From TrEMBL:
Protein name according to UniProt: Glycoamylase-like domain-containing protein
Organism: Mucilaginibacter oryzae
Keyword set, alphabetical order: Signal
Range of residues in the leader sequence: 1-24
Record keyword Manganese present: no
PROSITE patterns with a match to the protein in the record: PROKAR_LIPOPROTEIN
Keyword Signal: yes
Length: 556
C-alpha cells in the first residue's frame, strides 16, 4: 500500500529544491550605471586661452572637447549663448573627433558685445553618462572697422558734429528757462555751469547759421530774464543745480544746497561772451547787455574769501554756511573763477588772493616729464582733461603766460600726456589706441568718475579728445573720425556723441551731459575760428583783470 502522506512530503520538498536551485543559478540581470564624463579643452577660432576670449569674430567656431563621445540628440538643448542683457543668440552645433568634440557656431553676434556660452550638465555621452561639471566661456566680440556713415571731408565732419551737439542746448533746452538740462534724463533739473557752456554753444550756432540771429537773441533773453527774476542766488552766486521751472535750488548734495562759485564762473564766462556778441544799438540787445551786467556785477566774489582770507571758497550754504569749507586752489578747472574775481568792477579780489589762494605761491608748478612731455602745472600726468577745457572755453591760452606758466604750453602738454598714456595703455584696456583716447570726467557704467591717467577705469569720453582739438589737432581729429565712422552705430545719436564708452567690458552710455557736450561745440568753434575766445577776451573788464594778475598775451 502506498503511503500518500510520505509521497506528498517528498513532492513538496522536491519542488522547493528545484525552485531554490533555479533562483540561485539564474539571477535577474543588474544594469550597469553609466560612467560620468568630463570637459577636456576649449578653443575659439582655433586658439586656446582658457575660458575668456576677446577680439572674437561675430561668427566664431567654439570647439569644446570632452572625454567621451557625445549623445548627438541632446547636445543642442544643453547649450545656450546669451548676451550681457540675457537675450539668447541663435547657433548651430556640429561634431568632430568621433563625436567627442562639440563645435558651436553662432549665427551672427553683434560687434563690441559680451556673450556667455553655457554648456549644462544636461549634456550626455553616447553611453548616457552625465557631464560632471557645467562649462562656461566668456566672449567679447571685435570692433567692426567698416565705416558706419558715408565718408565726408574733415571740415564737413567738424560741422556735422558741432551742429548735432549744438542741438542739445537749443532743441533740448529747458522750455521755461531756456537753461541747459543737467543731462538728457534730468527733467526739470538744469545746470548753471553747463548753461554757461550752452550759451557759448548758442553763439557758435548763430555764427554758423544753425539758427537765426533773432532766434538766438530770443533764447538769450529767456535765459537772462529767468536768471534775473526767478533763479535763487546767494551773494550773487548761483547753485550748481536749480529747477528750470521755478528757479529753486536743487541740492547737489546734503551740504551743497546754496552757492557754487565755480559753476557760477562758468555761467558768467558764457554770459560775458554773449554780452560781447550782442553788441548792436537796438533796444533789445542794449537791454540784454544791461540784464547780463546786472547778473555779472551782482556776484560778490570778494565775499567768498570767507572773512578776507587770501583764497576763494567753492561753496556756501544758506543753512550750513561754510560747512563744506572747500578752498578753490589750483591746479584744476577753476582758473576762470580767479580771473573773473579779479575782473569784477563791483566785488573784485586782489592779486594776493590769486597768488596765495590759487597758485599757492608757486605750489601749483609741476615741471616733471611724462612720456617725454614736460608738464608745467598741476598733478602728475595732468589729471582729467577738463582741467584744460572748462576755463579755456573763454580764456584764450595761445600766447598766454603769467608768473607760473605758459598756458598754451600747459594745455598742449596736458593733452599730449593724456594721449600718450592711452596709446601706451599700461593697464591693457580694450580699444585704447592712437585713434581711441581721452580721459576726463564722465559717466561710467553704474556711476560717474573723473578719469585720468592716475584714475583709469577703462572708459573713454569723446569730449576729452574732441575738446582738445586746439591743442592736439591731428590726434583729436583721428579720434573724432574713429568715434564717428567706426563706433558711430553705437556712439552717435540725436545730440551728437553719447557721453562715454568702455571697450574692455563693452558698454556704451545712452546719456548726454551738458558739461561734456558744451566743450565739444565751443572748442570745435575755437579751433575753427577762435570766435568764443575772441569775444570773451574782448571784454574790457577781463583785459584789466587778467593784467592785474600778471597775465600777458597778444590778446590782452
Amino acid at each position: 500500500m502506498i503511503n500518500t502522506k510520505s509521497t506528498l512530503v517528498f513532492a513538496v520538498a522536491l519542488l522547493f529544491f528545484a525552485c531554490g536551485k533555479s533562483s540561485k543559478s539564474n539571477p535577474d540581470p543588474v544594469k550597469p550605471t553609466p560612467s560620468s564624463f568630463t570637459f577636456s579643452s576649449v578653443k575659439v577660432n582655433g586658439k586656446s586661452q582658457g575660458f575668456t576670449y576677446t577680439d572674437v569674430s561675430t561668427k566664431p567656431a567654439i570647439s569644446i572637447s570632452f572625454s567621451e563621445p557625445l549623445n548627438r540628440s541632446l547636445a543642442g538643448g544643453s547649450v545656450a549663448i546669451t548676451d550681457a542683457a540675457g537675450a539668447a543668440a541663435a547657433f548651430t552645433v556640429a561634431f568632430q573627433h568621433n563625436d567627442s568634440t562639440l563645435v558651436i557656431t553662432p549665427n551672427g553676434l553683434q560687434n563690441i558685445s559680451r556673450y556667455t556660452v553655457n554648456v549644462s550638465t544636461a549634456l550626455k555621452s553616447a553611453k548616457s553618462g552625465s557631464l560632471q561639471s557645467a562649462v562656461q566661456i566668456k566672449l567679447t566680440t571685435s570692433i567692426d572697422s567698416t565705416p558706419k556713415f558715408p565718408l565726408v571731408s574733415d571740415t564737413e565732419l567738424l560741422d556735422l558734429v558741432e551742429k548735432q551737439t549744438f542741438r542739445y542746448f537749443y532743441d533740448f533746452g529747458h522750455p521755461t528757462s531756456g537753461l541747459a538740462r543737467e543731462r538728457n534724463s534730468s527733467g526739470d533739473v538744469v545746470t548753471s555751469g553747463g548753461s554757461g557752456f550752452g550759451i557759448m554753444a548758442i553763439i557758435a550756432g548763430i555764427n554758423r547759421g544753425y539758427i537765426t540771429h533773432a532766434d538766438g537773441l530770443a533764447r538769450l533773453q529767456k535765459i537772462v530774464g529767468f536768471l534775473n527774476t526767478k533763479a535763487q542766488k546767494f551773494h550773487g552766486a548761483l547753485p550748481h543745480w536749480l529747477n528750470g521751472t521755478t528757479g529753486a535750488v536743487v541740492p547737489f548734495s546734503a551740504q551743497d544746497n546754496g552757492a557754487d562759485l565755480v559753476e557760477t564762473s562758468y555761467l558768467m564766462q558764457g554770459l560775458i561772451t554773449a554780452r560781447q556778441y550782442f553788441n548792436d544799438a537796438s533796444q533789445a540787445e542794449t537791454q540784454l547787455r544791461a540784464d547780463i551786467n546786472a547778473l555779472w556785477n551782482g556776484v560778490e566774489w570778494d565775499w567768498f574769501r570767507q572773512n578776507n582770507q587770501n583764497v576763494l571758497y567753492w561753496h556756501w550754504s544758506p543753512d550750513q554756511n561754510w560747512a563744506i569749507n572747500m578752498k578753490i586752489s589750483g591746479w584744476n578747472e577753476a582758473l576762470i573763477t580767479y580771473v573773473l574775481g579779479a575782473s569784477s568792477t563791483t566785488h573784485g579780489i586782489p592779486k594776493s588772493v590769486y597768488d596765495q589762494g590759487w597758485a599757492a605761491n608757486g605750489g601749483i608748478k609741476n615741471g616733471k616729464t611724462f612720456y617725454n612731455v614736460t608738464l608745467p602745472l598741476g598733478p602728475d600726468r595732468g589729471g582729467p582733461l577738463f582741467f584744460a577745457h572748462y576755463s579755456f572755453l573763454g580764456i584764450n591760452p595761445n600766447g598766454l603766460s603769467d608768473a607760473y606758466a605758459n598756458y598754451e604750453t600747459q594745455n598742449k602738454a596736458h593733452a599730449l600726456i593724456n594721449y600718450n598714456y592711452c596709446v601706451t595703455n599700461p593697464l591693457g584696456n580694450g580699444g585704447y589706441s592712437a585713434d581711441c583716447w581721452g580721459l576726463t570726467a564722465s559717466d561710467i557704467q553704474g556711476g560717474y568718475t573723473a578719469s585720468s591717467p592716475t584714475n583709469d577705469v577703462g572708459v573713454i569720453a569723446p569730449t576729452a579728445a574732441i575738446a582738445s582739438l586746439p591743442y592736439t589737432p591731428a590726434q583729436s581729429m583721428a579720434a573724432l573720425r574713429f568715434f564717428y565712422y567706426t563706433l558711430g552705430d553705437k556712439l552717435w545719436g540725436e545730440y551728437g556723441f553719447h557721453d562715454a564708452f568702455n571697450l574692455t567690458d563693452p558698454w556704451f552710455a545712452d546719456s548726454y551731459l551738458a558739461i561734456d557736450q558744451g566743450p565739444i561745440v565751443v572748442m570745435i568753434e575755437n579751433y575753427r575760428s577762435g570766435l568764443l575766445w575772441n569775444l570773451f577776451m574782448s571784454a574790457p573788464e577781463i583785459k584789466t583783470g587778467m593784467k592785474s594778475l600778471g597775465f600777458s598775451s597778444p590778446n590782452l
